């Protein structure tokens, strides 16, 4: 393929469009020369000043050369075009397209819980979770404050090296810290239950009481060593799982008692479906009738 470079004067006088050529920007070596010059200019700072001088000369020359390739008129080349007929064929077999409804796809769930439902479930579930945690401390350490202080130790650096006897005693700051951490976490997980349970409406007890607690217990087991080494060294995972199951069962039960909020997808259904009437009328409208 031969290229014919056009000078600025030839470009200014060429107004007629030639169908056998395509006008493209002329190739120029100055960007590569500029990159080489800048590389040598920087490399000379750690080697020898002569290399930097050579890089400066190449940089200035490339800047001037590149500038005059663009201004006052950009250089172009005329590339000849070879026309031909290209036959496009496919070896794939065509299949008949299945009929698709013109309506939008259904978005599930059509009903969900409100934000307050998740908050209520998280609060009641957090209260229920205290019972097995306190029972664990009472049976093993003869103190209900062990689990409270152990949770607070995750936020107090000074409690990292404290003894078991210290954690079994009552500390007001530990009670306040553990209450804040437990309340905040319980509300967040309650909101998660409110958003998750409508997605699994068939078996809410199994999902809320066992699947979800075991899922995030496994996630916490793998990450607790980084989040809180104190909790990771002292936590009893069997009782922790029991506490999580108690939270999940109570929280899921409270959330399911709340009234569901209907989404716009539900409100767009026909009246017969929204009213709960078993009808033979199809959901989609038949324009031919």
TrEMBL record:
Keywords: Membrane, Transmembrane, Transmembrane helix
Region feature Disordered, mapped onto this chain: 1-20
Keyword Transcription: no
Transmembrane segments: 33-58, 117-136, 143-160, 172-193, 205-231, 237-257
Coiled-coil annotated spans: none
Membrane listed as a keyword: yes
Top-level lineage group: Bacteria
Protein name: Uncharacterized protein
């Amino acid at each position: 393929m031969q290229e014919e470079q056009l000078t600025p004067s030839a470009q200014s006088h060429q107004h007629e469009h030639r169908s056998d050529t395509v006008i493209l920007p002329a190739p120029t070596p100055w960007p590569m020369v500029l990159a080489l010059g800048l590389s040598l200019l920087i490399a000379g700072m750690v080697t020898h000043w002569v290399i930097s001088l050579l890089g400066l000369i190449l940089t200035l020359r490339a800047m001037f050369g590149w500038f005059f390739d663009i201004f006052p008129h950009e250089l172009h080349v005329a590339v000849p075009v070879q026309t031909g007929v290209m036959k496009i064929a496919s070896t794939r077999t065509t299949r008949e397209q299945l009929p698709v409804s013109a309506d939008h796809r259904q978005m599930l769930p059509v009903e969900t819980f409100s934000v307050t439902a998740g908050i209520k479930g998280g609060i009641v579930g957090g209260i229920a979770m205290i019972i097995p945690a306190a029972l664990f401390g009472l049976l093993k350490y003869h103190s209900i404050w062990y689990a409270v202080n152990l949770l607070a130790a995750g936020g107090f650096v000074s409690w990292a090296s404290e003894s078991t006897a210290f954690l079994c005693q009552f500390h007001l700051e530990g009670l306040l810290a553990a209450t804040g951490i437990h309340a905040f976490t319980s509300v967040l997980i309650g909101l998660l239950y409110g958003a998750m349970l409508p997605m699994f409406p068939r078996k809410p007890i199994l999902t809320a009481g066992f699947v979800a607690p075991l899922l995030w217990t496994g996630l916490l087991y793998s990450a607790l060593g980084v989040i809180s080494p104190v909790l990771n060294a002292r936590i009893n995972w069997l009782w922790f799982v029991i506490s999580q199951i108690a939270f999940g069962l109570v929280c899921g039960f409270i959330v399911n008692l709340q009234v569901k909020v209907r989404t716009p997808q539900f409100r767009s259904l026909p009246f017969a479906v929204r009213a709960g009437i078993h009808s033979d009328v199809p959901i989609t409208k038949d324009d031919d009738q």
